[in-house]
């Protein structure tokens, strides 16, 4: 691929035009990030505590938020051919600020990798009646996903071509079974079987559940050929993944009277269906590991000025995530991941404002893009960015009304915009003062 090692996958450079992919290939990977067991669990939780139409509007509200963030981040990533953490160097964060992003995103995604690997391993072990035992199953599944990710986006696309149709086929068969035994109209109008879930909390669950995925959209969209491809990739991916899977899971939860995903799938599609749905977890897990490796590649390059092959980084963090899942440490890691759910969205708020409104680094990006290279200059770090990031996090963490991840994103974007305007005004005033003195 344009002289690059297949395992490096343009981790520290632009994705050239000849390496870009058809929209449907990137779309399959995107849908794979949403058509996973965790998404089905979310839909079942909504159905357990809400009526069909309440769950529909909660999903729509959360999906619109995700689509806006994904589209804007995705367009920037496609135009520049850069991953989220690398693009951040020229969109408000600077060289060292982008390394912090790489660290934060990587820690969060390695955590999710371990948790999802545990889910995958438990499902495989149960399907084999405990023949492997959880430690061996988790080791095998973790190393299996790591091997896929080492070979880059092409292999992610390959697994999506298997996992996504398999998952959708099982869900389709499940809804067929449900509708064969229940009236569709009755299910839509039936009361929810569990305790009430409010619209605000449900929309928060939908938007917050995939907000990190929205922020790292450039990791995928950098392979898109143009902005139109990004639009359809994010729109179809979000609404098929969020709206489609959620509403099917809502109907199944109503029919079975449970939010236990394994019970629902077992009752509708049997053990083979359960195994396929659990296998689809591979699709989200390889993306977790892939984006984590991109973030760490940028961190090592920024801080230590060393370029280490992304494949080697993938292997190391894949082994770490696998070991942690085997040890069971990551079951206690979920509170920290919720914490990251309001720590990561401000990144998008700042990057979108800088790239589309302030356009501070666009001149460097435009000039270097025509040459197919990275800009030769980037600021080291921007204190206004760090303040906006911190205030955005505090808003998301402490403000209880609304959607926390959206609160943190909006506050960070507004604070960054106002802060940079004040900083530029102050700098201009100082220049004029010095000129008058001279």
TrEMBL record:
Q: Which InterPro entries match?
A: CodB (IPR030191), Pur-cyt_permease (IPR001248)
- Compartments, as annotated in UniProt: Membrane
Q: Which Pfam families match?
A: Transp_cyt_pur
An annotated GO cellular component of this protein is: plasma membrane
Chloroplast found in the keyword field: no
| Principal location listed in the UniProt entry | membrane
Q: How does it sit in the membrane?
A: Multi-pass membrane protein
Residue ranges annotated as transmembrane are 27-49, 55-75, 96-115, 127-151, 158-179, 199-218, 230-255, 261-282, 312-330, 336-358, 379-399, 405-423
**UniProt KW keywords:** Membrane, Transmembrane, Transmembrane helix
Top-level taxon: Bacteria
For this UniProt entry, the molecular function terms from Gene Ontology, in alphabetical order, are:
cytosine transmembrane transporter activity
Report if keyword Transmembrane is assigned: yes
- State the family it belongs to: Belongs to the purine-cytosine permease (2.A.39) family.
Q: What is this protein called?
A: Cytosine permease
Q: Which organism is it from?
A: Parageobacillus thermantarcticus
């Amino acid at each position: 691929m344009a002289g690059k090692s297949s395992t490096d996958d343009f981790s520290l450079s632009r994705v050239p035009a000849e390496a870009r992919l058809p929209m449907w290939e990137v779309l399959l990977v995107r849908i794979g990030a949403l058509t996973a067991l965790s998404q089905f669990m979310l839909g079942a939780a909504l159905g357990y505590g809400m009526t069909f139409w309440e769950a529909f509007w909660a999903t729509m509200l959360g999906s619109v938020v995700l689509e806006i963030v994904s589209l804007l981040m995705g367009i920037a990533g496609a135009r520049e051919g850069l991953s989220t953490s690398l693009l951040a160097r020229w969109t408000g964060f600077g060289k060292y600020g982008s390394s912090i992003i790489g660290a934060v995103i990587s820690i969060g995604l390695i955590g999710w990798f371990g948790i999802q690997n545990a889910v995958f391993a438990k499902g495989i072990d149960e399907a084999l009646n405990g023949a492997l035992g959880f430690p061996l199953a988790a080791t095998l599944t973790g190393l299996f996903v790591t091997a896929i990710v080492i070979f880059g986006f092409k292999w992610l696309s390959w697994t999506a071509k298997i996992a996504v149709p398999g998952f959708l086929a099982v869900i389709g068969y499940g809804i067929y079974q449900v509708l064969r035994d229940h009236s569709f109209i009755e299910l839509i109008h039936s009361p929810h079987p569990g305790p009430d879930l409010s619209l605000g909390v449900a929309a928060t669950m939908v938007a917050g559940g995939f907000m990190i995925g929205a922020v790292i959209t450039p990791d995928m969209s950098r392979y898109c050929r143009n902005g139109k491809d990004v639009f359809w990739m994010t729109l179809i991916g979000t609404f098929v993944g969020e709206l489609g899977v959620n509403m099917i899971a809502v109907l199944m939860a109503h029919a079975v009277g449970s939010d236990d995903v394994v019970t629902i799938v077992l009752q509708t599609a049997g053990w083979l269906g359960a195994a396929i749905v659990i296998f689809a977890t591979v699709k989200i897990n390889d993306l977790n590991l892939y984006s984590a490796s991109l973030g760490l590649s940028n961190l090592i390059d920024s801080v230590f000025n060393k370029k280490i092959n992304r494949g080697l980084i993938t292997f190391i963090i894949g082994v770490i995530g696998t070991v942690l899942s085997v040890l069971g440490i990551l079951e206690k890691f979920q509170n920290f991941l919720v914490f990251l759910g309001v720590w990561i969205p401000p990144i998008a708020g700042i990057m979108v404002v800088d790239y589309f409104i302030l356009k501070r680094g666009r001149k460097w990006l435009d000039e270097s893009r025509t040459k197919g290279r990275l800009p030769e200059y980037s600021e080291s770090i921007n204190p206004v960015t760090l303040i906006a990031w911190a205030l955005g996090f505090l808003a998301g963490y402490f403000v209880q009304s609304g959607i926390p991840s959206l609160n943190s994103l909006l506050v960070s974007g507004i604070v960054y915009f106002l802060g940079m305007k004040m900083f530029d005004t102050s700098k201009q005033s100082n220049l004029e003062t010095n000129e008058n003195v001279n």
